[in-house]
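Quick one from the shared queue. A colleague (R.T.) flagged Lysosomal dipeptide transporter MFSD1 as missing a structural entry in our internal table.

Convert sequence to structure tokens.
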Amino acid sequence: REWALSDTDISSERQSLMDGEGDSFTSRDGGSSNSMLAICDPTRLAHRFVVLLLMCFLGFGSYFCYDNPAALQTQIKQDMELNTSQFMQLYAWYSWPNVVLCFLGGFLLDRVFGIRLGTVIFSILVCVGQVIFAAGALFNAFWLMVFGRFVFGIGGESLAVAQNTYAVNWFKGRGLNLVFGLQLSMARLGSTVNMNVMGLVYHRIWDWRGSTGYSTLGVVLMIASATCVFSLACAVILGYLDKRAERLLNKEEGKTGEVIKLSDVKDFPPSLWLIFIICVGYYVAVFPFIGLGQVFFIEKFNFSPAEASAINSVVYIISAPASPILGFMVDKTGKNILWVVMAVVVTLASHMMLAFTFWNPWIAMSLLGVSYSLLACALWPMVAYVVPEHQLGTAYGFMQSIQNLGLALISMAAGGILDSRGYLFLEVFFCAFVCLALVAVVVLYFLNLIRGKGENWNVIILEPFNSHFLF
């Protein structure tokens, strides 16, 4: 669930959020911005701060509910009488629609719905999907839960595109990197709160009802849908403020800037395909592991459910503050391949510690959190160094599509392996994919070296077309 957008104006990005303070305009009705309250003036800091809050909370519900299955793994498997392979379908069916929608999401926002209506529609899909997911538990219908996750997936990833588009539309040249960092931090906060709260909510509902079972699970998931309704409200208010700003400032509605041409795929250089392999090999060893992590920590380390949920959320807890910091560090130092190598090696060490030792798992999970954040900051910008600007939309869309395809397939495979072989074999399975990513990044380094780039590792094959990103 990582997204990347570029800003071609590097120098303007270094300006602060205060750059627009004091700007004035004359609206279509003849009123001056100087006569408005600061919080009502689209050119003033106070108003943009309100917009920023709405943007940050726009994806909170989606990220909170995405890992509901991970936070309630034990309860879902017991109440719905599922094996692990069936349980992991809840993640696989989230990913399936995004194998295609990564290409269509930007097109729908630009050409069909528009950013404001599209954001509301995708937010509604997230809400409806979560409600269907909860209803499936209430009525003891697992197929309905799977269908709910499918609908939820249709809205979730496209909503992330809309969120980033709003950010570019409002903050390009006014601290855009900071805005992207805050959005990512809020997303990780949603995941963290989910991991640490949903188990407690389940036990409270259990105490209130006096029994467990699928109906209790359904009530808990329905409560979680309130976060999606909150994000929908933010989408509606944000759409109104954006429409109002368009009227007052005579500006155009925001565009994603994505140009998707499947015919460009045949022209992708070998370096880009290696980046795709790194992406898939790495992320399939992170997200499916977190989805299954709670029971792993309970069974291997004898943690309580609350302790297991807490440690399973460490990756997201660390990512929230670390992503902007590490992104700034990668921007300043360059040498993206070096940072990717480091992130992959540390992730491999983390999985090996969890698989073959009984060391305190807080160590391994903390390392995994740092390496996960580092890879996101270093890997995704590399695409802009290997393809021309007119192919960036296609390249990123294809990268997201194969990532979701890999997550869907590996999620189902991981569930089957865990049912038949256990956690040790599953960890070896994850280590194998991290090793695949490591081999790909080493080959990428030598390919870069052969092409004569030497130590200038942050320039791969081509000079950068868009040289500043934040993820």
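The CA atoms of residues 27 and 249 lie 7 Å apart.
The first helix runs from residue 10 to 13.
Added to the table.
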